[in-house]
């Protein structure tokens, strides 16, 4: 059994990792850490874990690195910068949930940080060239050798998976791609404050960070690496009154030689043998992926405008966070990428 530590264990991301790793046949949770709830059993924080996981939560500085095979940092932006170096020195692979290690240059990180509203230089800039973007459907070979993996943003997963086949195959014409994304309130995290109180969220929808969302940076970088040039993404996210789930709709100008049938075939071929991406002729619902590591994608050509419409659905807490991280961990540790993750959505 491989031994794992989870730092940030008492947030939604940490809880997602615990839920998945409890059923993983080859990885066991050895240590939990967080800034809050230190000294408590994690089952005191999440009572549904009683008898399944009763490990005590420690301070991140008190984690014993001895014998660890992998560490998950389910921590906010900038929290892991000063901690991950010690794991790196001990040659312990790390998967970080924040935006701290999604980029290989300080310049790219600075754009992300500015959109996020942060100031200050990256505190571990020398480690950025070592990082690998943690999207297995595109970078599995690099993830296999990585020591630091930056887990993608949840919206980024939904957009990138929806757009990669169109960009790489030449279906997408040049020009801006417009993306509309709707997310449940859990995307803001466990300590998201007044804006996500029930009276604020119930029967209410609002947009935010219109055109400046931090995940746009990583989407554009990945599409650029896939032959997308300096293509721009115009993205407007909205929060809807759901606990979990992301539904993204993308609008793409296409080269005229492609029709609906050839595009559907291109998408199906691209994700052949990718166990967690399903190309469907039925428009996906967020309920179809709730609790699952799947991404459902429907590509449609609008007959009137000639544009490609791509609809993708993921669970922001699974494929958009903890599930994707475990998928990366499986690859890093030499397991089949689907181990511990090959379960259907819980429905209804």
Structure description:
The chain is α/β, with parallel strands linked by helices and 348 residues long. The protein has two domains: 2-152 and 319-332, Rossmann fold; 155-316, Dihydrodipicolinate Reductase, domain 2. Helices cover 29% and strands 20% of the residues. The protein contains ten helices and 14 strands. It has a seven-stranded parallel β-sheet with strand order 3-2-1-4-5-7-6. The chain has a seven-stranded mixed β-sheet with strand order 9-10-8-11-14-13-12. Strand 2, helix 2 and strand 3 form a beta-alpha-beta unit. Helix 1 (12-21) packs across helix 10 (318-332), helix 5 runs parallel beside helix 10 and helix 6 packs parallel to helix 8 (215-228). The longest helix has 15 residues, at 154-168. It is globular, with a radius of gyration of 20 Å. The two termini are 34 Å apart. The relative contact order is 0.14. The model has no long low-confidence stretch (mean pLDDT 94).
